[in-house]
Specification:
By secondary structure, this protein is of the alpha/beta class. The protein is built from twelve helices and twelve strands. The radius of gyration is 21 Å and the shape is globular. The model has no long low-confidence stretch (mean pLDDT 95).
């Protein structure tokens, strides 16, 4: 039997509840994983003075694989996103977010099976920002106004949107190789190149170049992001794998989660060269902290992705089947699987236990 080491990051808010539930379910498959716990986010600030201590990064570098619960990101102020920090520090350039329908989830759609491949390292999420009113910001505005016919207003804040050929080709190659390995038939490149001709235009042209290497094996198309949003609502079955720049990937993956019943069933993975972190798409929902209320399925399904990444395909299938059966039966599921709020439901731990019992 293979033995693995993995970093375990509980997260904060509801993070520990769903992360420990997922870890218990992974352990129940019988795969031999030695877990090394590491803390980041709000809890880490108290002990390390930073939300992302170097010890966490070193643990992931050493173990190569991590399972992570959600971490709170303050809106508009406070520390920067730990999620973004992890991806940048470890060059986890590919964000993989499957959106699959499980019978019993509350949605108008059926048989959805989409995969979002999001470029993680560039775009507006690169974090190159300049605050309104500061000297550096004024200097940049003055320089841009000298060189551009389109002027930036005084008193503006600025975000820089870098898109490189290197990163665009790299994420395209990842998407096409993923499609081949997983028997997917079609890739759609999502962009706004009709307006942002130099940044999104470069992303589109780079993906097109890579697509030529897969002609006859993978069908290729492209779609403008706003039109794609409409098409996903009208006819989601027309799509298979979507490859997108960072910001669009974040937004469209949430849209696709809505098609399958919500973020409670939306797993995710952030993958680089020999390193990977597995975590749900949803956030830390601190208002539900400690209430044994929230749906653990997205984190458990992230564990399924982790098992597949480790090459434990049979264990991954057994765990996914257990999740599928529990959701379909509807007896031991959390409140978000109910049409009627008056219907009985269970908590995080009880749903975890029901899934573990189904693992064969």
């Amino acid at each position: 039997m293979n033995k693995y080491k993995a970093t375990f990051i509980p997260g904060d808010g509801i993070g520990p509840e769903v992360a420990y539930a997922a870890r218990d379910c992974i352990n129940a498959t019988g795969v031999n994983i030695e877990w090394e716990e590491a803390v980041c986010g709000e809890a880490a600030i108290k002990d390390f003075g930073t939300s992302l201590p170097e010890v966490v990064l070193n643990s992931i570098r050493k173990n190569k694989v991590a399972l992570k619960g959600p971490v709170t990101t303050p809106v508009g102020s406070g520390f920067r996103s730990v999620n973004v920090g992890l991806r940048q520090a470890l060059d986890l350039y590919a964000c993989l977010r499957p959106a699959k329908y499980y019978e019993g989830a509350q949605t108008r759609y059926r048989d959805i099976d989409l995969v979002i491949v999001r470029e993680n390292s560039e775009d507006l999420y690169a974090g190159i920002e300049f605050k309104e009113g500061e000297a550096d910001t004024k200097e940049i505005i003055n320089e841009i106004n000298k060189k551009s016919a389109k002027k930036i207003r005084d008193g503006s804040a600025i975000s820089i949107k870098p898109i490189s050929k290197f990163a665009s080709r790299r994420i395209a190659r990842f998407a096409f190789e993923y499609a081949l390995k997983n028997n997917r038939k079609k890739i759609t490149c999502v962009h706004k190149a009709n307006i942002m001709k130099f940044t999104d235009g470069l992303f589109l042209s780079s993906v097109r170049e890579i697509a030529k290497d897969y002609e006859g094996r993978i069908e290729f198309s492209d779609a403008i992001v706003d039109n794609l949003s409409m098409q996903l609502v009208k006819a989601p079955h027309n799509f298979d794998v979507l490859v997108l720049p960072n910001l669009y990937g974040d937004i469209i993956s949430d849209l696709c989660a809505g098609l399958i019943g919500g973020l409670g069933v939306a797993p995710g993975a952030n993958i680089g060269e020999g390193l990977a972190i597995f975590e749900p798409v949803h956030g830390s929902a601190p208002k539900y902290k400690g209430q044994n209320k929230v749906n653990p399925a997205a984190t458990i399904l992230s564990g399924v992705l982790m098992l597949k990444y480790l090459g434990e395909d049979k264990a991954a299938l057994r765990l996914e089947d257990a999740v599928r059966e529990v959701i379909k039966e509807g007896k031991f599921v959390t409140y978000d699987f109910r049409k009627d709020k008056a219907e009985p439901c269970v908590g995080t731990k009880e749903m975890r236990d029901a899934i573990i019992k189904k693992i064969r």
